[in-house]
Give the backbone structure.
Amino acid sequence: MGFSIALIVFSVLLMMLVLMHKGKGGGLSDMFGGGMQSSVGGSSVAERNLDRITVVVGLLWFVCIVVLGLLMKLDN
């Protein structure tokens, strides 16, 4: 039960973190107004930290899926 709730929380958090990234151009982000380039070039510290947090949350999400799969296999 706890891992199911954790999976839901990590899923929502991962979705929000991915949506917070700025568009790199050429994709759907340009279609919806994300194509405006800022005058600041390169990757800022905030963007790098957001990348790191997204990777960590993604790994935790993956671990929850693996643990839930193992628990379901053990229940049968």
